[in-house]
Design goal:
Layout lengths: L10 E7 L3 H12 L6 E8 L6 H7 L4 E5 L4 H15 L4 E6 L8 H9 L1
Parallel strand pairs: 1-2, 1-4, 2-3
């Protein structure tokens, strides 16, 4: 998480990948443009081996890569990613399918609406 006022919720963004590495790369590129100041990314490779930790670190600096040996489905992958995001200090968790391409202001708008 970047250093910002503790009054700003830390948001862990969980992206689930399953044999769609190009979609996940595009999603991570979109997340890199988010203007919200306090977020981190967890990529769950759900039973595939499309990524490695070094590639995730390049695409989402400071992000975390988790690989499940089996496809846990979206819910199982989301639970794995949520546990990691919360362990990293997230106050809130935002779950994304890997084909999501959020606009730069999307997370800021979500947090503004929720606070």
């Amino acid at each position: 998480m970047s250093e910002v006022s503790p009054d700003v919720p830390a948001v862990g963004i969980v992206v689930i990948n399953w044999h769609k590495p190009d979609a996940t790369r595009a999603c991570l590129a979109a997340l890199a443009r988010l203007t919200y100041p306090r977020h981190s990314v967890v990529v769950v490779d759900n039973g595939s081996d499309d990524f490695n930790a070094a590639e995730i670190d390049r695409l989402a600096p400071g992000g975390q890569y988790l690989r499940s040996d089996t496809n846990l489905g979206f819910a199982g992958g989301a639970n794995l990613g949520m546990s990691a995001a919360l362990a990293r200090g997230a106050d809130w968790v935002w779950f994304l399918n890997n084909d999501a391409l959020p606009e730069e202001q999307a997370l800021s708008a979500l947090v503004d609406a929720a606070t």
